[in-house]
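User: Second chain of the day. Same drill as before.
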Amino acid sequence: DHTLTAATRLPEAAQLLSFNIELRYRGRAARITSCDQVLLHLPRYEYEWQRKYTLTQPVLLPAHSELRFTAIYDNSANYRSNPDPTKAVGPPEELMRAVIEYVLER
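Assistant: Same format as last time:
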């Protein structure tokens, strides 16, 4: 397993609305957290799940909250979504991308 983490801070208080993430074939799990709260957790991510995840209720986050996106990749022969475990991978074969939709509280 290989874990990558990216983070960003909100400039102001905001209502979080949705996420769109992309990992590609070797992506095995994904998680978005903020303020010790799990906002999105996909413990068994599938490549076909690259869609918009809309929260049932907006989540209000205070100004300067950190949003943390963690992805786990599996390049082993045992991972069924891996097209070629003998190949070293990186961009563009694999990537980690998140689009986070929010509305600033003004």
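The first strand starts at residue 2 and ends at 9.

User: Great, on to the next one.
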